[in-house]
Amino acid sequence: MDFKNYIGGAWHETTEAVNNINPSDISDIVGVAAKAGAGDLDQAISAAHHAAPAWGKSTPQQRFDVLDFIGSEILARKEELGRLLSREEGKTLPEGIGEAARAGQIFKFFAGETLRQTGDRLASVRPGVDVDVTRFPVGVIGLITPWNFPIAIPAWKIAPALAYGNAVVLKPAELVPGCAWAIAEIISRSGLPAGVFNLVMGRGSEIGPKMIEDPRVTAISFTGSVPTGRGIAAACGANLKKVQLEMGGKNPMVVLDDADLDVAVDACLNGAFFSTGQRCTASSRLIVTEGIHDKFVGALAEAAANLKVGNALEAGVQMGPVVDEKQLAQDLEYVSIAAKEGGKVLGGERLSLASDGFYMSPALISETTNNMRINREEVFGPVASVIRVRDYDEALSVANDTEFGLSSGICTQSLKHASHFKANAQAGMVMVNLPTAGVDYHVPFGGTKGSSFGSREQGAYAAEFYTSVKTAYTLP
Fold this sequence. Notes:
The protein is α/β, with parallel strands linked by helices and 476 residues long. The protein has helices at residues 38-56, 60-76, 78-89, 93-114, 152-163, 177-187, 204-213, 226-238, 261-273, 290-305, 325-340, 392-400, 415-424, 463-466; strands at 2-3, 5-7, 10-12, 17-22, 25-34, 120-123, 130-137, 140-144, 167-171, 197-199, 219-223, 242-246, 251-255, 283-289, 344-347, 350-351, 359-360, 363-368, 383-389, 407-411, 429-432, 452-453, 467-474. α3 packs across α4.
């Protein structure tokens, strides 16, 4: 299958293309993806720039109809789209189908938001003067999305951008062109005017800087690594361009002595190893108090060792492959570093299975301290480390001792400790007796410190980024 760029309402081929490889079976070519260059990007930005004013003045009903169509088709085809996702990214098939369904739900939610947009009518402090506060579109939004959620993250950026009247240029990760193309193909039949949505696929280092520097692009929403995000923030600041960044995490899960052991093990197993640990919200630091430490480590090690690792499309598989060879090498290198620093490693080995893919066993590393590299740097794989602490106070201190602040969790039966943790964990999202990964689409998503910059994504809070506010005064 050929995955082409979508520019100005038409499909565009390019002189260069790259194979989209299945990480579960590297002999399987999912498709051939067009590789956009500077000229393709310029056409896409130009198309969005010319289409934005009219779409910005479209009615709520027009926007609702488009977004509702997209959401309905994604939901109707969730099994097909989920299989494509699992084939090109490596999530297990149930996870792939679940993510596709979530993408459809996101479009449906923002279809509703088109009809719920509000403003304020206020009395001025000056007699006889009326004040109206309204929101208006930002203009052309450049969206740069990662490979780990190849349909959900584009959806939660595209949907609010369109709902609030903006035009879009989407640059998905080079590893996962198929899902982005599938979304574009559905959008192409939704009734959206030509040029309002554009898809350009290619290397981020080539396309990204040009998108950021182009004055016709008025805002950038990016999800990816911290170093890249910092560079984007600097470039957008220099160009006075609105920017929203979602970056890394080194998320703690605190397990207290009074925790239900089964609940804690299930939460940590899910948070650390499901989706092959390739989630920015993954539980990568397990902070466990002394009284439960040994029982917890033993139970989690047994559960992790029993996870079925294999081809993402096979029934019963609980953890698929790592996304590519480069990421696998990085994961294994961090396991080696942790062992050299004194960590006790269980698992964390490359696996040879029936199909040739990028497989590794889940790695659980005990006997670590919070100053080890394994606990300071984001690995982005099925790797979790355990830190032993004395009590709740030390657990909270260690949990907050990180440059990141995306998600944080605690397993406890104490209302006192749960309430204190929710109030004092330095993270944008806090979970109690739940995995650190796994969020709803109708509430805000984002973190603190080095994990996020700018306003929140998802839910009604998305309006803060995708609109600007106008205050109008009238003397009748």
